[in-house]
Amino acid sequence: MITSLDSLFYVALPYMAVATFLAGTIQRYRHRPFTYSSLSTQFFENRAHFWAMTPFHYGIILVLAAHFLAFVFPSVFLAWNAVPTRLYALEVVGLALGVMTLIGFAAVIVRRLTNSKVRAVTTTMDWVVYAVLMFQIVTGVALAVAHPWGSSWFAAAMSPYLWSLVTFRPDVAYVAALPWLVQLHLINGSLFFLVFPFSRLVHLLVAPFPYLWRRPQVVRWTSPNPAGAK
Question: Which residue has the higher pLDDT, 48 or 179?
Answer without folding.
Answer: 179
